[in-house]
Amino acid sequence: MPALPSRFDDVEALESFMSEPTPALVADLAATDGDIMVLGVGGKMGPTLARMARRAAPDRRVIGVARFSEPGLAASLERHGVECIACDLLDRAALERLPNVDHGVRNLVFMAGHKFGAADNASLTWMMNVGVPMMVADTFRNMRIVSFSTACVYPFVAVDGPGANERTPAIPPPGDYANSCVGRERMFEYGSRKYGTPGRLVRLSYAIDMRYGVLHDVASAVFDGTPLDLTMGHADVIWQGDANEQSLRLLAHCTTPVTPINVTGPEHVPIRWLALEFGKRFGRAPLLTGQEAPTAWLEDTAEAQRLFGKPRVPVSRMIDWVADWIERRQPSLGKPTHFSTRDGKY
Fold this sequence. Notes:
Elements: H1 11-18, H2 23-30, E1 35-39, H3 46-56, E2 62-66, H4 73-79, E3 83-86, H5 92-96, E4 105-110, H6 122-139, E5 144-150, E6 157-158, H7 176-195, E7 199-204, E8 207-208, H8 214-224, E9 228-229, E10 234-235, E11 238-239, H9 240-249, E12 259-263, E13 269-270, H10 271-282, E14 288-289, E15 295-296, H11 302-308, H12 315-327
Parallel strand pairs: 1-2, 1-4, 2-3, 4-5, 5-7, 7-12, 8-11, 9-14
Antiparallel strand pairs: 6-15, 10-13
Helix pairs in contact: 2-9, 3-9, 6-7, 8-10, 8-12, 10-12
């Protein structure tokens, strides 16, 4: 792999790097058969993941499915060789019209879900996070299914420990979002046990892009001089390109029945330390409030490291990249992570 860049000049350069496949991904996809379909490709990670799949397996169809409410997204993906199909995933009949194994599609990456606004529209949250997975697990029972989940299915764990591992019971704190995410996992597990569907559940914690993520939120607060609450004092983060790569590689590491795997960085990052590091780069002191809680949503990634090694991009390089991006006032997605939330209300 080429050396890591020192900065990203613009969004085009950023997305090109985030969708760059590794030789290991190319090899793993070569070990699987069939085309690849991504349900929920329109989210924050979906476009670069689909582009990465296409670059890693240029002889395969990569199909992106979403409502495509964002203007220009479908056209952009198609320019990069990703076939786009507009579909409302809440519509069972529309799901059943999508390409399947009879059309050569053997691999499914499920990225759809509902988080922000969950507290105000609980019924939609549960339908998107439980009802849709139930339909998908049934409709695409003959495929490999890698489904995105979240660290929020875990209870809070001690910040001075290794983090929750895949054997930690999925008993999250109260809140419709976290509990519906447990429901999502249960639907894919049920389908896997009933039909023998191979798959994995990606318990992802905070993928980082220059335009959003925990580092973007902390850096923006420091740069703008706004108070930063330290109560949720630690977070696990991973470069989005590394998260894309590991998630796609899981298509070659599916299990029957489906099993979870934690995907994030290997260290638990203190928010206070992050703020001080950005303060050094910006030449200004962060405004810190609150006191760190002794627990947080933190994951043990020993299993992912056994399969894939450590992520390519270290936290220190992500900090440099984000600081440069914020200081040059490059674009933001305007989607705060609300990482400091502890009551489950998003």
